[in-house]
Structure prediction request, 334 residues.
Amino acid sequence: AGFHSFDAGQAIAGLPTATPGLYRADVGPGEAYQVAAHADGYARVQRAGCFEGSTIEIVLLPGARFEGTVRAAADGIPLEGAMVRVFHGPDWDHIDHWTDTEGRFAFEDLVPGEGAYFVSPREHRATRHTETVFESGATLTRDFEVETGWAISGQVRDATTEAPIGEAEVSAWSFQGASAWADVNGFYELRGLKTLPGKVHARAPGYAIGEAEYRAGGAILDVRLEASVAVRGQVLDPSRRPLPGGFISQRQYTPDWPDPHRIEKDGTFLITGLGAHGVIQLLPRVPGYEATPFTIDLSMRVPDADGVIDLAPMILAPGARVSGRVRWATGAPA
Prediction:
C-alpha cells in the first residue's frame, strides 16, 4: 500500500514489510514525526505527534472524485489552464489542478468529509468559494460557466528607492488564485478580477508582501514593496525548557496561514520575509502543549544589522488530556 514516514516533509527510511498492511520505520529518539499512508483509490491519511516506539494504526477509506468542466459564459468555449482549487481533509489541505484543452479537470482520492472548491481562470472572473461534502467512493461533478473578468495593470516598485522590481508575483486573491508576474521592468497586467473594489498583493524575494487597493476595472495601479525583516525566537515550557519537534506558523498581510516553519531541537525558530511595519501573528504548535497565538507589533521593534528582530521567549502551557471509551450501540467495545 506504499507506507512512508515523514520528518518535516522529507521521507526517511520507509520500510514496507512482507506482511500486507504492516510497516516499520527506523527513527531517532526524542523527535516528533508525521506518518502518512496512501494507496491507489484511497484517500491519504496523515498522523502527527508520533514518537519512537509508537504503534500507529491507520485506516484508509476509498477516496472521493471531483470532476467537471470550465467554459466561458459568453460563448461556451472550453477554457484551458483555468486553476481549480479543492480544500479537503481535517486540516483543509488544498490541491490545485489546471483544466486541459477541453476545459476538463479531475481530482482523485480526496479525503471524504467536508471540503470546498473554487475556480480561478486566467482572464475570467473567479467563482465563489463553495463548501461541499465529498463522499467516500463517490464522484461529485460540477460544470462551471465563468464571466469575463476585469483587468488592472501597473508597476511593482521599491518603496524606498522607487526602483522597479522585476519578476514580482502579483495577485488579487492573496496568492490563493490566479497570479501575474511582472516583467524585468516591474510592469504587470492582472486579468480575471471578480469584484470591485478590491486589493492587489505583490511579493518578491527580499521584500515583504505589499498591497494596493483598486476601485475600477482598467485601473493603473502601482504596488510598492518594503525590504523584509526576519524574526527570531524560542519556544519554552513553563519551566523554561526548550520545546523541540513542533512547527510555528505566521501571518501578516493575508488571512491565510502560509506553510509552517520548523521549531529546532533547542526550541528556536527563524522566520524571514516579513514586513517591518504592522502586526504579525505567530502560532507555535508542539505536541502535548496548547497552540497559543502571539500577536506582535513589528513597528515597535528595531532589527539588528542583519535585519533580524529578536523576540521574547514564547511560553506554552501543557495541553489538556481527554480520554474515554467508545462502544457500539450493542455495548461491545468499538
Remarks:
- The radius of gyration is 23 Å.
- The first strand starts at residue 3 and ends at 7.
- Confidence is low (pLDDT under 50) at residues 1-13.
